Amino acid sequence: MTGPLSGIKVLDIATLFAGPLAATLLADFGAEVIKIEHPRGDPVRSHGAQRAGIGLWWKMIGRGKRSVTLYLGAPEGQELFRRMVADADVVIENFRPGTLERWGLGYSALREINPRLVLARVTAFGQVGPYAQRPGFGTLAEAMSGFAAMTGEPDGPPTLPPFGLADGIAALTTAFAIMTALRAREATGRGQQVDLAIVEPILTLLGPHITAYDQLGQVPPRTGNRSSNNAPRNLYRTADDEWVAVSTSAQSVAERVMRLVGRPDLVHAPWFASGAERATHADELDEAVGSWIAARKTDEVVAAFENAEAAIAPVYTTADIFDDPQFRALESIISLPDAELGRIRMQNILFRLSETPGAIRWTGPPLGAHTAEVLARYGVDADRLAQLRETGVVR
Description:
The chain is of the alpha/beta class. The protein has helices at residues 18-28, 56-61, 75-85, 99-102, 107-113, 138-144, 165-188, 199-205, 209-216, 251-260, 264-267, 275-279, 282-294, 298-307, 318-323, 325-330, 371-376, 382-390; strands at residues 9-12, 32-37, 50-51, 54-55, 65-69, 90-93, 118-123, 193-197, 234-237, 243-246, 312-314, 333-338, 342-347. It has a domain at 9-204 and 353-390: 3-Layer(aba) Sandwich (Rossmann fold), CATH 3.40.50.10540. It has 18 helices and 13 strands. It has a six-stranded parallel β-sheet with strand order 5-2-1-6-7-8. The protein has a three-stranded antiparallel β-sheet with strand order 9-10-11, with helices on one face. α1 packs across α7 (165-188), α6 (138-144) packs across α8 (199-205) and α7 (165-188) crosses α8.
């Protein structure tokens, strides 16, 4: 094991996205992550695209983890889990509140086994409150946080993202929360419980809408691809029927764009000096920028914006990402050997550390690939493993 988190042992008993992805991020930087799955497997194994019956999402979210099957609803599974907790640093779970307690595996019980344990609990609505017992997924967080209400065209319905946005934000937050708790442990010698509600990180990421409502009574309207904070900011169609994104969050960039498209007169308008004021003139600005872009091909538009030091990017499909020189320079996509599929490509680790870099050690393994290896550490020999298989506790 190498990486800055080498020596940290994580038991990942969560399913699907937010909790497991947090564990993936820790694994990328050297933590030993033991993925404990129900003998049927984490549902993510059958979620989304598959090749030859093998889930491709699992290959990414299961990377760097050891797969162990263990039915925690059975007394034998609970006893083995307690043994594993004894030398673990972190447990990540996303069962409905009260489930671990019903199994005798709540935080108070685990803390007696290992006072240094950090238990990260990732649920839709958190451990307390009137909604705590409701089933929930990231979609509900995207709806209740205000995200869907402010996303979409002004005359259209609220819009949900076509991917696990709230789950992904929660995963990043969970990884940060775990590292914060581990840092606190260095000072106190004690672990603690992390209560993360998926609905909260996306609420924070949406910016000042809570404070704006508190102070001004403002509710953000749906503005499509426009922004209420600056303009021009939109997607524009080029002459070769492609799309580019333009943003002018900085005043100097907004001025460069208008000079580039032949409308320097607008730069001197009294309202142009404020991003919020420019946003109230979005129709006029979009007409100027959009008509200029519509008369030119994408390559010409992008080159002109780059020469003018103005912010622009083409709208990519997944196929375009593979051919982009910047993604290649960053090594954002990595090719890895896989025991089941040969070589596969996926997103690389999230960031680069100059002294203690992370690495993807292997792709998501077959279900239960490490069960015998890991359980042997906790006194399960071949005969006992066979008994556990017969009773369905492991697979």
